[in-house]
Amino acid sequence: MGQSLRIGMVVGEASGDILGAGLMSAIRDRHPAASFVGVGGPRMLALGFESLYAQDRLAVMGYIEPLKRLPELLRMRAGLKRYFTEHRPDLFVGIDSPDFNLDLERALREAGIPTVHYVSPSVWAWKQKRIVKIARSVDLMLTLFPFEADFYRRHQVAVEFVGHPLADTIPLACDTPAARHKLGIEAGAEVIALMPGSRGGEIKFLAPVFLQTARWCLQRRPNLRFVLPAANSQRRQQLELMVSDYGDLPLTLLDGDSHTAMAAADAVLMASGTTTLEALLLKRPMVVAYKMAALSYAIVSRMVKSEFISLPNLLAGQQLVPEILQSQATPENLGAALLHYLEQPDAATALQSDYLSIHRQLRCDASARAAAAVLNLIGRGA
Q1: How far is CA 15 from the centre of its chain?
Q2: Topology of the domain covering 6-163+364-377
Q3: By its UniProt entry, which SUPFAM superfamilies does this protein fall under (predicted)?
């Protein structure tokens, strides 16, 4: 394989650590002696990644926390820029965390270092003017979804659709009996999974109406059962307070295990977000909902340019699943949409066929395709 290969990488979140570890392994399949340095998480560290800073120092969310941490984040980015310009890698890959990585990528690209950004920001949905900054910052964008790649091509940005690692790891057929056995649910039960999100704000706005919806559905189908996974101990405490007012519901509150909860369900009521992709890959009929403060919604709704908000609909380019938002997200509307799947099994079957087509489209051996793309960029793909 000739001369050694040295690649800089920066990931800011756990999901990026998964992508980074997959990319490292796929690159080493072609270049066993390749070395990696920058900022990485535990999976990457286990593969010999040299992390200059702790990955969790980049894992900030929301609006206030990044502002509080801004001086530290700026010092980290300046330190990384200095390090990579003094110890030049063959290539730099920023994985997600666009607010941090794009500025770093631009500086390194201007210094003559090839740059790749892995995981597109939602530039196709809002703040589309960011495409100008992206074009100046990266030599290549790697996207998880094909509609994202189409957007970049329209704006003459070099792009490669590589697929989604979840589509590689989740089987094409969902094993619902195994999931129900794990949760102690009888095979013939009718089950609805409630997925009101993983953040405190989402729980605050969505969990009450989801529980009201469950009660509305139970009144019409008395044999229903419900499962509600809590993302972590804080969310469980928050949900326990709410669930205490719904003692009439046959509901099981789970510690995590959202994958199993969805796999066990006949239908899923869920917050809009990345978990909708997992539900799609598990072939679960779903109803997507979202609520936020009225002022926030008024601002966000004016900024969003895409017709749909949920990944199933974005991937299909049409409305596959109901999206019920804000004031329309009532127990009656949500409940009727959920029961439609139970009362019209042909509709659920047709939906699952569409899901399977999308799953196959995303099942591309994402890590290997990403590795091939970045190695080809620097002429090391052979």
Answers
A1: 8
A2: Rossmann fold (3.40.50)
A3: UDP-Glycosyltransferase/glycogen phosphorylase (SSF53756)
CATH number listed for the domain at residues 176-362: 3.40.50.2000
> What gap in Å lies between CA 129 and CA 154, rounded to an integer?
13
Collapse the DSSP code of 139 into the 3-class scheme (helix H, G, I; strand E, B; otherwise coil) and give the result.
coil
In terms of Cα–Cα distance, which of 126, 127, 124 is closest to 157? 124
328: Cα separation from own chain's centroid: 25
Taking Cα atoms as reference points, which of 33, 115, 121, 15 lies closest to residue 366? 15
Provide the residue count of the chain: 382
What tokens appear for 127 in the block?
């703040």
The tokens for 276 are 């909708």
Measured between alpha carbons, how far is 139 from 373 in angstroms, rounded to an integer? 11
| Amino acid in position 101 | N
Does an H or E element contain 79, and which?
helix 70-86
**Phi, psi for residue 143 in degrees, rounded to 5:** -115, 150
Distance CA 199, CA 72 (A): 24
364 contacts 163 by C-beta, under 8 angstroms: yes
Provide the residue ranges of all domains of the chain, joining segments of one domain with +.
Answer: 6-163+364-377, 176-362
Q: How far apart are CA 92 and CA 37, in angstroms?
A: 9
Q: Tens-of-pLDDT digits for all 382 residues of the chain?
A: 446 899 999 998 888 899 999 999 999 999 999 999 999 999 999 999 999 998 877 765 444 455 666 788 899 999 999 999 999 999 999 998 898 999 999 999 999 999 999 999 877 655 667 889 999 999 999 999 999 999 999 999 999 999 999 999 999 999 999 999 999 999 889 999 999 988 888 899 899 999 999 999 999 999 999 999 998 898 999 999 999 999 999 999 999 899 999 999 999 999 988 899 999 999 999 999 988 776 665 556 665 666 788 999 999 999 999 999 988 999 999 999 999 999 999 999 999 999 999 999 999 999 999 999 999 999 987 6
